[in-house]
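User: Sequence in, structure out. Go.
Assistant: Echoing your sequence, followed by the structure tokens.
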Amino acid sequence: QVQLVESGGGLVQAGGSLRLSCAASGRTFNMYRMGWFRSAPGKEREFVALINWSDGNTDYADSVKGRFAISRDNAKNTVYLQMNSLEPEDTAVYYCNARRYGNDYWGQGTQVTVSS
């Protein structure tokens, strides 16, 4: 089992920045990848960004490319999401995801609210 704890959400004005953190614990060895998804009111959960644990390769949703950056600290088993130039459309609950041996694990979510 892998446990994920997110932090760093909050309220920010449009154009501002936030950094989310997700700390993994438990059976974290041989982690395949970690990433972020988000769920806005009335919308399905959508992919935001991911990072491969072994080589650091990243992937982003088109809607956040150039504004968000995902990174990892292997020693701390932590993944970060730096969010810049935030827009009201980025308002959502952000969920951390980890994949290990084909199993997906999720955090409890952290609210990000961007005011116009």
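User: And one key feature?
Assistant: The chain has no helices and eleven strands.
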